[in-house]
Design goal:
Helix content: 10-25%
Number of helices: 2
Radius of gyration: 14 Å
Strand content: 35-45%
Number of strands: 4
CATH superfamily: MTH889-like domain
Structural class: alpha+beta
CATH topology: Alpha-Beta Plaits
Length: 96
């Protein structure tokens, strides 16, 4: 199986831990080199966050477990990049 280089997941998380701590704690995983978090929506109880993980061979099971241990849940996997390198997104005719 090809190495997973980038993984974008939609996560529902509680307000505590705060997004900075939540994101920082997910970077502690061995397979993760970097994480970017973007707040999508916030309500009284939870936050909907997009997390983008990058690494040489991401371990989805470990990422999912870390998110659950922090009180969150993965709602969907929105993007996966596999192979020798990450292909940059380019506009296509379907995007117009």
């Amino acid at each position: 199986m090809a190495a997973v280089r980038r993984l974008v997941v939609d996560v529902l998380k509680p307000h505590d831990p705060p997004m900075l701590e939540f994101t920082d704690r997910t970077t502690e995983l061995d397979s993760v080199d970097a994480v970017t978090a973007s707040l999508i929506e916030r309500d009284r109880e939870v936050q909907n966050v997009k997390l983008t993980f990058e690494g040489d061979d991401l371990n989805f099971a470990a990422i999912d477990e870390a998110i659950r241990n922090l009180g969150g849940s993965v709602h969907s996997v929105d993007q996966v990049a596999c192979g020798e390198y990450v292909v940059a997104d380019r506009p296509t005719l379907q995007d117009a």
